[in-house]
Design a protein that fits this description.
The complex is a heterodimer of chains A (749) and B (201). Chain A is α/β, with parallel strands linked by helices and 749 residues long. Chain A is built from 30 helices and 25 strands. In chain B, the strands form three sheets. Chain B has a two-stranded antiparallel ribbon. Chain B has a two-stranded antiparallel ribbon with strand order 2-3. A two-stranded antiparallel sheet of chain B has the order 4-5. The chains are: A alpha/beta (749), B alpha+beta (201).
């Protein structure tokens, strides 16, 4: 997404889905994972006659409300989308003006799409030619159409290609920057967007600034600390700029050096300690490795309102610390919703017992590690204060520093004002009325200045920049292969002083692009470019001139720095179709992928996995639970809905293995691991596939770990973790695990 | 609510997604034992495309309530607003009402080695029971009395997609009629008809 048009975030909003005429959903199940948000889908259907199309390996609750349902084989979204593009281009249903003015590199996509005839698509995906044509026709003809996805599209070794081709489909139909259009990625947990924006990630500084020396220096300056001091905290400057381990593969950092384990590049040392905040690490792939790594660590700290079941999984007896964290009701501050809107949350009660809010735990840690002053200094700098007030001053610090995604307008005062006046906003357009007129609810970023009203629909050139309009971001240079990458003539946000494409704004080009003259004092104060201009002169001047600070460029269908410049199909590492795995092999193995050597084609071609493991394995969520599920399984009424771990299995498949409804079965993984679960007959899965929910823990490969829970903390429901049997496989760019396309073997207990 | 109000439930199966928030909210609000489900979501043809649908079922508060007709100890009473309640102090837990009810609404505690024993429990439409309104005795036996506080019953308040409607039957039919009338008319940004009437001039 970010590599296609600038930002990696939902482009419209849940409410805006009501404006859609067609809704196509790839690998998402909002009826289960976003039940309240799904109300907007139902309203679109009810009021707008929106056609709902679901493309998923499973007949989900979302599909139950759909007009069309294509049951694809896991991991074949790319052939399906190319099949759609094939039919669209063949019939001339694409939006030619939009492509001409706003998209770069679509010719290569046309070439690839021409190979994917409906017949070929049917063979690879398992969806009939007729259904593909029907769906394509409905989706191409019912505009605006919105495209929805979630983890079913991302959690593949080709996840990053999936999430590029989906935007390309939308670009081809001219569905971007429109009310009722867009690519609406549904975030899976509360404040995931906020956590991502603050880059609780290993490869970039907050606000997606990256890890370059320039970025570190910008932050050093903005935090009021010495760059050399910051650099001194790292082993060396090379490691300061190196991407870290990810949540998906941290265990490799512990286990490296053991036989059969992947090699690591961690400055000559293995990981020795693990500090976990706000994540149930029993819901990530390779559970057996996670356990082994936990056992191996010198120190494990788990900060959680509940007992993080990592503590139950491990056999480690000493140096495992469980710190009680406060819940959202016992703390306050801003969170970001899936649509880039912020919302201020007030504290409802004081933290109970000895639990503490996350920031207090981190501040205490910083004190003991002797950098508390440097750590908190950024909160004092705006008004040159002696002491800070949390979280208000932290919020203002974010607003002061994060220019890349336009958080300048997110001051704590404004965010509180929005929460307080929640009733004054429209649920569809997010527009405020009465005293909130001119602002959109939660000031969806980019919110360029302290008076800007936010941008509810990204890349919408039918609005002025002041009203939240913008073109695509100029992020990939001014030209490539001799072609201009800026937007076409006359294709600029409304009411701007510049009607054509323009570069991102810098101190150097601001006068020429905006057609203005800066005063001498402005010239002195202005930052180098819009991303580091803490004076905010660039943004203010841009608003006056109706210019988007990040430029006005074309989206690109081709990412020349990626291993696959255009998305191409590659079979999952563990594919049930050996013939296709040879034809569409995975990537070359990748060295030093977030510090770990990662296997692709070598593992895929190691043997015919499907011979021993003939059944597709997919995982997903239940409506009653989220993530690792402990907080839900600790509620007796939620636990009563799904009291036991189970496996959805088609009665036909079950019968061939002699497994009765409700009987216990083994699921074996190519990893050499297994789980014992209850069979649940279901027609929602095909006969070559089983589905496992991933919210359970407390059992491990047939062993009940109940005795390990500290007294009084055992949840009402425990069970095997699906991730004990999910397969090896990681995305080539993001390293997200391939949990939505693996193999297994089943057996009656 | 008018003086003539008759209280009813309606579940719009076009909107119900089997999220169970109604049943969990009910159980949580009234602190029910886990064996008792005053409200349940029923799904038919699960997993079959084009045929699967769900609906939320509880006591339907019938006008001519069969449970009331068959009760040997006459523990049922129907309020003026149509809400069907019963007196747990009189109930003998015989289960006749369960035989009579077309919806399987009556529930019996399922504790102990031999299963069902004790007084019947069912949806009160969040209107408590014969004890003094909002007393602790009422709360203990029947759960919250939200109707007395002017609130919507918990299930409908928590419904994710507003499939489950509850209240004065006229109010419910107005809401549903609006949904039907607005089908295909586009997103509501101004009252229906305005765009045709005023936008062309």
């Amino acid at each position: 997404m970010a590599n296609t048009w600038g930002y990696g975030a939902m482009t419209n909003s849940l409410g805006d889905i009501q404006n859609a005429k067609a809704i196509i959903i790839f690998g998402a199940n909002p009826a289960v994972n976003h039940p309240v948000g799904f109300g907007h889908f139902l309203k679109a259907k009810e009021r707008n006659n929106a056609q709902i199309i679901v493309v998923d390996p499973r007949m989900t609750k979302t599909a139950a409300k759909a007009d069309y349902f294509a049951q694809i084989r896991p991991g074949t979204d790319i052939p399906f989308m190319y099949g759609m593009l094939h039919i669209i281009f063949k019939n001339g249903w694409e939006d030619k003006n939009f492509i001409n003015d706003r998209v770069y590199g679509l010719e290569d996509i046309r070439k690839e799409a021409s190979k994917w005839t409906p017949e070929k698509v049917a063979d690879v995906t398992g969806v009939s030619e007729e259904l593909l044509m029907q769906i394509t026709r409905v989706y191409a003809k019912s505009t605006p159409g919105t495209l929805i996805w979630a983890m079913g599209l991302t959690q593949h070794s080709i996840g990053s290609s999936n999430t590029r081709l989906a935007p390309i489909l939308q670009l081809s139909l001219g569905n971007m920057g429109k009310e009722g259009g867009g690519t609406n990625i549904l975030r899976g947990h509360d404040n995931v967007q906020g956590a991502t924006d603050m880059c609780c990630l290993s490869h970039t500084l907050p606000g997606y600034y990256g890890l370059s020396v320039g970025s570190w220096k910008y932050f050093a300056k903005s935090w009021g600390v010495d760059y050399e001091w910051l650099a001194g905290r790292f082993k060396n400057k090379k490691m300061m700029g190196a991407k870290g381990f990810t949540l998906a593969r941290w265990y490799a950092g512990v286990l490296a050096g053991k036989p059969g384990e992947d090699k690591i590049h961690n400055a000559g040392t293995n990981l020795k300690a693990l500090f976990v905040m706000g994540t149930g690490i029993t819901s990530i792939a390779q559970q057996a490795k996670v356990k082994e790594a936990l056992d191996e660590l010198e120190l494990v700290v788990l900060v959680d309102p509940f007992v993080n079941e990592a503590a139950i999984l491990t056999d480690k007896q000493d140096d495992v610390f469980i710190l009680p964290a406060a819940t959202q009701f016992e703390s306050s501050g801003s969170v970001s919703a899936t649509n880039r809107s912020a919302q201020w949350r007030y504290k409802v009660i004081e933290p109970m017992y000895e639990s503490k809010p996350d920031h207090e735990i981190l501040f205490e840690l910083a004190k003991r590690m002797d950098f508390y002053e440097e750590y908190t200094k950024g909160m004092l700098m705006k008004e040159n204060k002696k002491s800070y007030k949390f979280p208000e001053d932290a919020t203002d610090e974010i607003a002061r520093i994060i220019k890349t995604i336009g958080l300048t307008g997110w001051t704590h005062k404004r965010l509180k004002n929005h929460t307080d006046n929640w009733h004054m906003f429209d649920e569809v357009s997010l527009r405020g009325h009465g005293p909130m007129k001119g602002e959109y609810y939660g000031l969806p970023w980019p919110c360029w200045t302290e008076t800007h009203g936010g941008s509810p629909i990204l890349y919408n050139i039918d609005r002025s920049v002041k009203e939240g309009g913008m073109g695509f971001r100029n992020r990939f240079g001014l030209e490539h292969d001799g072609q201009n990458l800026l937007a076409g003539k006359g294709s600029a946000p409304k009411a701007g002083s510049n009607k054509d494409g323009y570069a991102e704004i810098t101190a150097k080009n601001i006068e020429s692009v905006l057609g203005i003259k800066l005063s001498a004092s402005e010239k002195k104060k202005i930052g180098k470019n819009w991303k580091v201009d803490t004076s905010n002169i660039i943004a203010e001047k841009c608003m006056e001139a109706g210019i988007a600070p990040y430029g006005n460029a074309k989206a690109r269908a081709k990412v020349w720095t990626f291993p696959d410049p255009i998305p191409i199909h590659r079979e999952p590492i563990h594919s049930p179709r050996q013939d296709l795995a040879k034809k569409y092999p995975s990537y070359k193995d990748k060295a030093n992928h977030y510090r770990v050597d990662t296997q692709y084609v070598s593992l895929q071609s190691k043997k015919n996995w499907s011979k021993e493991f003939p059944i597709n394995l997919i995982t997903g969520r239940l409506v009653s639970m989220n993530g690792a599920g402990l907080e839900n399984r600790a509620s007796k009424y939620l636990a009563a809905l799904d009291p036991e771990m189970f496996c959805d299995i088609h009665p036909g498949l079950a019968a061939t293995h002699g497994i009765r409804d409700g009987a216990m079965m083994w699921v074996h993984s190519p990893e050499g691991t297994k789980i014992k679960v209850k069979a649940k007959y279901s027609y929602s899965v095909k006969e070559d596939m089983v589905f496992l929910p991933f919210h359970y823990a407390g059992h491990f490969q047939g062993e009940d770990l109940s005795h390990k829970y500290p007294e009084g903390t055992k949840p009402y429901a425990v069970g095997e973790s699906a991730n004990t049997v999910t397969n090896y496989g990681y995305d080539i760019i993001t390293q997200i695990p391939e949990t939505k396309g693996g193999l297994c073997r089943i057996e009656k207990v | 609510m008018s003086e003539l109000a008759k209280m009813k439930f309606y579940c719009d199966d076009q909107r119900c997604i089997e999220c169970n928030s109604c049943s969990v909210a009910c159980a949580e609000a009234h602190e029910l034992p886990t064996g008792v489900s005053r409200r349940k979501v029923i799904t038919l043809n699960e997993g079959i495309f084009g045929k699967e649908f769900s609906t939320s079922v509880a006591c339907m508060h019938c006008t001519d309530a069969p449970c009331e007709q068959v009760c040997p100890v006459d523990c049922f009473y129907i309020r003026e607003d149509g809400i069907v309640l019963h007196d747990k102090e009189i109930c003998i837990g015989c289960g006749y009402c369960l035989y009579a009810c077309p919806f399987g609404a009556p529930q019996f505690p399922r504790d102990g080695a031999f299963g069902t024993k004790g007084a019947m429990d069912k949806c009160t439409m969040c209107a408590g029971g014969p004890e003094e309104t909002n007393s602790s005795a009422e709360r203990e036996l029947y759960g919250q009395n939200r109707i007395a506080e002017g609130k919507v019953p918990m299930c409908a308040a928590m419904c994710s997609t507003k499939a489950l409607l509850v209240g004065d039957e006229q109010e419910i039919s107005t809401i549903y009629r609006k949904r039907v009338a607005s089908r295909g008319k586009g997103v509501q940004s101004a009252p229906y008809g305005w765009s045709e009437e005023y936008s062309k001039q």
